[in-house]
Design brief:
- With 221 residues, the chain is α+β, with helices and mostly antiparallel strands.
- It is 37% helix and 25% strand.
- The chain folds into two domains: 40 residues; 121 residues, Phosphorylase Kinase, domain 1.
- The longest helix has 29 residues.
Length: 221
């Protein structure tokens, strides 16, 4: 309602003298206040930011991301077994047993096709088969330690390795020879009926002592 409409409406009313002007003034005052309120609300609405719309992800980006994830999973499926195989050893470790097989006495050597034994009066006897082919007897005689070995093998298979610095013939029939490897090391060896024999000493026995021990053993076999 504008000012003219309000004034025309009041023209048809017959109030008391002076009341018409007061009513008209009050109505104009209220109309102005109402208009100010409407303008204020309009300004607030104009200043208030509109709610932001959520940005939608293009479809091609969604499918692209999914394809990338799928490619990573497939690649991991091919690569992971390769790394697992590398972390594991190719072959399990092989545990090798002792080359020594203990036997109770000379009869334990029969499976080798021959037997040997320590000389009489020997002490601290130990019988074994070394590497499945070598008969061996360790013993003590007259205070010295000896190793007696025999096998159907060629070459030096005894404990006493190395070249001799001096040699002495003990028995021509058996090709028996006494080798001196050092002042404390002796090696006597001979052959009989296809079996090779070795007698070794490492604790400084005299030449006479090891010669006597070798002669005793050659007489036994």
């Amino acid at each position: 309602m504008n000012d003219n409409e309000v004034k025309n409406a009041f023209d048809h009313i017959e109030p008391e003298p002076g009341a018409q002007e007061r009513m008209y003034a009050n109505i104009l005052k209220k109309a102005a206040a109402q208009k100010e309120d409407q303008n204020a609300e309009k300004n607030i609405e104009e200043k208030q930011p509109t709610a932001q719309k959520r940005r939608t992800v293009p479809m091609w980006r969604r499918w692209g991301s999914l394809a990338a994830c799928l490619a990573i999973v497939i690649a991991a499926g091919f690569v992971l077994p390769h790394f697992l195989d590398q972390s594991e050893p190719d072959d399990p470790p092989v545990f090798v047993g002792s080359p020594f097989e203990d036997v109770d006495g000379p009869e334990g050597f029969e499976k080798l096709g021959f037997t040997i034994d320590a000389p009489e009066n020997a002490e601290n006897l130990y019988y074994c088969i070394y590497d499945g082919k070598i008969a061996r007897v360790d013993f003590t005689l007259d205070g010295h330690e000896y190793t007696y070995e025999a096998a159907k093998l060629d070459g030096n298979f005894s404990r006493a390795e190395g070249d001799a610095v001096g040699s002495t013939v003990l028995n021509a029939e058996y090709g028996a020879t006494l080798d001196c490897l050092s002042p404390d090391t002796w090696r006597a060896h001979w052959s009989k009926e296809g079996v090779n024999y070795y007698l070794s000493n490492f604790d400084g026995a005299s030449e006479e002592a090891i010669t006597a021990a070798a002669q005793l053993l050659m007489g036994q076999n």
